Amino acid sequence: MDKRYSGKCLCGAIQYTCTADPAFSGNCHCKDCQRTSGGPFIPAMLFPASAVEISGTPKYFKSMADSGKFIERGFCRECGSQLFTRLEALPEMLGVKAGTLDDASRFNPQLDFYVASAQPWDHMDAGLPKMPGPPRG
After folding, report:
1. Hey, which of 5, 36, 82, 96 has its CA 20 to 30 A from 30?
2. Which domains does the chain show, CATH number per domain?
3. How far apart are CA 17 and CA 7, in angstroms?
4. Kindly report the CA angle at 105 between 123 and 32, in degrees rounded to 5?
5. Sign of dihedral through CA atoms 114, 115, 118, 121?
6. For residue 74, which of 87, 64, 89, 90 has the smallest C-alpha distance?
7. Ranges under pLDDT 70 in the chain
8. How does pLDDT run across 115-127, given as a tens digit for each residue?
9. How far apart, in whole angstroms, are the C-alpha atoms of residue 8 and residue 12?
10. What is the model's pTM?
């Protein structure tokens, strides 16, 4: 069985393949993720950036994260799909939005984080550990 993770944006202009297993996977409930996704959280995976091959050119929007470091969200210029996250705090990693995977059932979240910002209508998996703020390693 092929263990690579692959995915694309809605229109297919940007595609990617990850040749490593994710170093982290979880659901971010921060207010920024709520605003950028239009939903209660973003299901995210972190891969070593060197293990991700991207075809197409995402546009990145840079903003300040709660940590005081920058975060860049990469999206397709054509369809607007949000695909990637680059974190100043973890420059060797690339975040991938789990919903953009070709087989999104491979997403296996380890925890819910930034739950202090979660909305009351956000019904989280009771079986996952919860962190009020960022994940701690």
Report:
1. 5
2. 5-118 (2.170.150.70)
3. 7
4. 50
5. positive
6. 87
7. 1-3, 137
8. 999 999 999 999 9
9. 6
10. 0.92
